[in-house]
Please model this.
Amino acid sequence: MWKGLVRNVKSVDGRIFASREGLTPSCIRCLQGPVNSHYAGFYPVLQARLLSSDHRSSKSPAAVAKEHRSRLSDLPKPEGDWQKQQQSQNQKWMIFLGVGVAAAAAAVYAMKKAGSPPMGSEKEKSAKKQGASLFGGKKAKPPPVELPKEVTYLIIGAGTAAYSAYRAIRASDAAAKVLLVGEEEHLPYMRTPLSKELWYSDDRKLVENLVFRQWNGRERSIFYEKEGFYCKPKELPEKEFGGVAVGVGHKVTRLDVKEQIAHFEDGSTVKYGKCLIATGGKPRNLAVIENAGKDVLERITLFRTIEDFKHLDSITRSAKSVAIVGGGFLGSELACALGKRSLETGLKVTQIFPEKGNMGLVLPEYLSKWSTNKVKGEGVDVLTNSVVTGCKFDPKTKQVSLTLDSGKTVNADNVVVAVGLEPNIDLAFSSGLEIHDQLGGFLVNAELEARSNVWVAGDAACFYDVKLGRRRVEHHDHAVVSGRLAGENMAGARKHYWHQSMFWSDLGPEVGYEAIGLIDSTLPTVGVFAKATEKDTPKAVVEATGEGIRSETEQVAPAPSSVVSYSVPSKPLSEEDFGKGVIFYLRNDIVVGIVMWNVFNKMPIARQVIKEGKKFDDLSEVAKLFNIHGDPEQPPPAADEKKESTEQKGAKQKPDKAGK
Model:
């Protein structure tokens, strides 16, 4: 209101006066009533305003002032010294302000004392690890650490392949200086527990600290090493005996392969001697979901990182429903994990995928359907042969509404999309590196080399397998194997890819499998099964070996020098009894892939079978090499210990529709 009163102020003979025009009725009423100290500070301004009511006329300012001077005598005057009254009023306001600030500070202190841990406590450290402030807000992203200007070995990526590579480099070159740079704000960690063991822990403190209990109860962090193991990046050049540093929060946008310089998003550069690209991949989304709008995307989880795990873990503790789109390894593991939670919280879990059964792209149909019944038994509503054709946000229920090709609608508070991985190949386009049109990934040779002094390992590598041809693999053990091979070759080994990586999946602690080679449900398969015992579970094998990362247990069973067969007594099995067994995948009647269903620590034998690359007349005899009829903790008997007889041929051999 007062702002309008001081518009067009003019000075005449050193005095300030302005027009009375524009005064509202409320202003006039204020001026006509008693003027108290509250308005005293504005009185000179109003007085000046009234002095020049005709300042836009042709009269001189002096004449206007003289003509209207009598108007000032009509205004009520403040009693006493108005300046002292105004100062007194200002002092009162300052007192009120001081009291208010003190009260607010006391309230904040009380809240902090009651609801937050003391500085440096374990709870506060846990909160910091989760990226949260003491009051629940998201922690600000720290600035990237300073990097050295030049390194001998540069690894782009800070995951499993990168970790495996630097270990191989240091094993070959003890004084090597290795720099890992990654976009995530975390040190190298394993991803497998994010969809497996972490969901089955009842200790919230362990979960918050990203420590999981293996099926045998042993505790283990998902981080490969503690922070103190690594040196600071800027200190790396000064390490006399070499070392390894991790620069988190850094993104490489381009490689100058000729000059051997890596360009970063923040404009900095690092010159390298040897470079490994281990950028991994990013989760795929469905176009129908991706284009459904902001409200939908806010309720979608693409599961891959620590942040994704924390987010899904948090929302499924309060949400009433969740839908999982995808029936592969990740989707099926999460379905079982959330199914367990549904029994505790009442969470409704729905799994949707187009195949006939869980993991239908890798398992033969009969075993895929058996797995689906297992997932249903965990409390999951499984919708097979279903494709998501529509997706929208329902403002009434505040849920995501998925429309299926069958016409059915599924509503959920949150939707997890687990439909595969897209290799992260951005550097290929900016750096002039080749990619594979069909398989995706950086195109590399059998030594995993893309260009001179540039290698690729892990999910992003499309490599040449001298045994099985051009391939791209997205499993933990492949990241370990390819990372190790790349590291050795960076140190001068010049080895080609020969070691067949394995992978494993657990549908909880009671059902799991290990696999190697080409595992494709479109290939002919032959399965040989036996009755399982309480020792034939993922939980039992971890209790026996003490190791939950089963790619690290291969030394338990030595590989045979050659494949031989033997026979032991066994009982015939019912059609649906797939407690444990071995499934052989064939191409031109030669075994190219093997799945060991609830059969563990026999991976060296499987490797040997694939390595020999020959035809077998009776695969049920080959299956006995895996000791499926005996005690899993005992080695199989020698080939000449048993004579085969008709009554000993009791193993259940299950070919699929394409089987021979």
The longest strand covers residues 269-277.
